[in-house]
Design a protein that fits this description.
This protein is 0% helix and 46% strand. The chain is an all-beta fold. 35% of the residues are buried.
């Protein structure tokens, strides 16, 4: 059974940092691509960052320079380091994984597996 479990969300002040984690199991994490997306009520899900099997990364313009995606293949864990957080970064954050090897992509269709999400709130 495939599972993706996010953690690390919470309340942080503007300008603060959070590190999200996503523990993956049940599929070949190391040889496939992973990504982070986020969604706020009433809006479409937004791609944030991706990383492929060669650790090539990609970022949405809205988070470039502030967020960093990484992974630990030995632990089957995906990370998202979020710095300089802004109120507009508040959202439910989801990790996603592809079933097959794929290039780093911002398209949802690439990803077959999804976590349940972890909430990030940015407020003073």
């Amino acid at each position: 059974e495939v599972q993706l479990v996010e953690s690390g969300g919470g309340l942080v002040q503007p300008g603060g940092s959070l590190r999200l984690s996503c523990d993956a199991s049940g599929y070949t994490f190391s040889s496939t691509s992973q990504a982070w997306f986020r969604q706020t009520p009433g809006k479409e899900r937004e791609w944030i960052a991706c990383i492929d099997s060669n650790s090539n990364t990609g970022y949405a313009d809205s988070v470039k320079g502030r967020f960093a995606i990484s992974k630990d293949n030995a632990k089957n864990t995906l990370y998202l380091q979020m710095d300089s957080l802004k109120p507009e970064d508040a959202a439910m954050y989801y990790c996603a994984g592809s079933r097959y090897p794929a290039s780093c992509s911002g398209y949802e269709i690439v990803y077959d597996y999804w976590g349940q999400g972890t909430q990030v709130t940015v407020s003073s």
